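Chapter review: from sequence to fold.
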Amino acid sequence: MRPVEKWFKAKGWKPQDFQVDCWEHYAKGENIMLHAPTGTGKTYAVWGGILNESFELKKIEEGINVIWITPLRALAVEIQKSTQQLCTDLKTDINVDLRTGDTPQSRKTKQNKNFPFGLITTPETLHILLSSKKHKDIFKNLRAIVVDEWHELLGTKRGVQVELAISYLKFLIPKIKIIGISATLGNKKLAGEILMGIENSFTTITSKINKKINVKSIIPKSMERFPWRGHLGTHLIGEVIKIIRKGKITLIFTNTRSQCEIWYHTIIHSYPELAGEIAMHHGSIDKKIRLWVENSLRENKLKVVVCTSSLDLGVDFSPVEVCIQVGSPKGVGRFIQRAGRSGHQPNNPSKIYFLPTHAIELIESVALQEGIKKQMIEDRLPHINSYDVLIQFLTTLAIGEGFFPDEIFSLIKKTFSFQTINSSKWKWILNFLTKGSQSLEYYDEFKKVQILEDGLMVVLDKGIALRHRLSMGTIVSDSVLKVKYQTGKQLGTIEEWFVSKLSKGEVFTFAGKNLELLNLKGMEVIVRKSKLNKAKIPAWIGGRFSFSSNLSDLLKNTFHNKKNYSTKEFKALDSMFNQQNRESKIPKSDELLIERFKTKEGFHTLFYLFEGYAVNEAVSSLLAYRISLLYPITFTISVNDYGFELLSDQEFDRDIFIENNLLTKDYLLDDLSKSVNISEMSRRKFREIAVISGLVFQGYPTKPVKTKQLQSGSQLFYDVFKEYEPDNLLYQQAINETFDHGIESSRIQRTFEKIEKLKMVWKDCKYPTPFSFPLITDRIRSKMSSESVEDRIRKMYLQLEKSVK
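The token string follows.
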């Protein structure tokens, strides 16, 4: 019996089949891609195999034997504790340590003298180690690379960083084994191929544990015929409090940091007795506060935590009994991931409540439950040919021991992301490193890499090396300011653009507190607590979640499947469905519903695609553009996950719409480019590429560059490349990423192919319909203050109810 199996037996546990499979395949020297649900023992499956092998070795070599890559620093702490505990229990002197951006310099200095057997780190910190001139010595005894939560890294540029690091380390030490760990992923085989590279074989191990997830919908006691409530769901706070009081610990998941702040503030204001038992957790709150919240969860000191995706990943909070998802999670995989924060043990079911922010979202709850049953988990698609990440990686090697181009070209072509790179593009990249590309070759500041007589490419300038180390990574955000009390205590960070709209003395909510702005001091926002209840809610610029393609299909199937009409969710929506059928109709699976009606605002035309926000937004812009080519007309556009509204002061002719086939897929990309302003979107995308590739510098820690300066700098490069060097790979990358990851052009193409097979059903309505109401209210909310908007919407709602009666 292996040492780890004996440990399991002593604990009274029986290893899961997938854990035993991992131990056996690792012992055979195989690369492994492990897929298992959250909270089923993935860490022991992998670390157990590593320890079993270590016991069989005559001698364990000094230094790093195992690198364990994780996307989250908080997760790194958790893994270090559990792996070190297993080592201690087995009475080995094997040491596991952390090295992330949070690790104190004194601890790093100690590690540099004697690196641990196992190093838990992040993609960024691993690349910083590769920039060391001693990195070959540091990694000479490496036996395994473990990539945890691969599903979270895959599909991001951090995933590309991992691919490049693995390929390079495999080049240095060909014998090393690669182990990927993933949960909630659709394209399992592809996920393994991306991680391993195109020449490394691997074994896929999938847990047979079907972790039970109990989903319950929070259904209001009385349902309106017109779903007029906002996107916050706080009108259901009474139901939420009942759930909190029943359980030990509850996590309330919101989709945005603003929503998180609002929910926390609403709970603490309405139920002050929860003070001391409630906390908030999101990415902009200070690290010390976040760590306190995480430790308090583990130690059972809190009753409820309102959070965002910052608590999505596999940190073990065993005391958590139940989760609440506020509004649409936008994907089946994300919903499963969040549900998995509760019942975080192999045999415990997960329990999650779905809280609809307006009535139509109740249908989504039924769709999600069906998606969980059928395991319709979304695929994660990789970034291909991210030249900005490659340029950063090559500069990293150049400030370390340097590199020979032919050797590195060979290993780069072995990665999934760069398998198609050719010699001409490679030559362009080398030229960019040494001269700064064709249009920049007369400027010395872009000549970062030198070529020595033997062909070795190195960075000799210490200033360039320092600036590069400070800029390493692929996460680019707007400039943030530190929020501090007068005493110096830091609360977290807030984006520069939001603070620029505040005046001294104004009150805003942050980290669950109402704060008065006293002063702006450099990159610091000096505040004090305020007793005023009215406060502005910060907003953070970030990607708006959109429906996944899977959830979109599920939602449409849920609408059309008659058996769902017997569920409690659909029964609760009876009055709404009846009104929708009276005034318009509920579309069949082969129909596209288009509604038209007139109000005091003008002529409304609404299309119900059920394709998610991003696709609906692109289709609405394209359609408005095509109509405007036929005759002069101006539209106000409103979009949500279910459809879009075109509002105009004049009625557009339905016959002209049909005769000109305005929803054809012909000339799609060309029309998209003109309608959604691809140029402006690619400019914003280029800013990120410019930072990652090192074209623009974000500044020193004590003196960061302001967002406006960063934006203007990157736009200057964009304009120069567009005008004088249109074949520039970074410029081309910005355009490609805008199409592939910005507007999801391939998904829009599929949407138009679906539309062409649908029968268009036009309904001329007397009044706004239940389906149209969320679109109308969202548009009004975006233009008016929160108080006046709710008054106006409530008035509209009452007028509609009166007219119906």
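Two observations follow directly from the output. The first strand starts at residue 32 and ends at 35. The radius of gyration is 28 Å.
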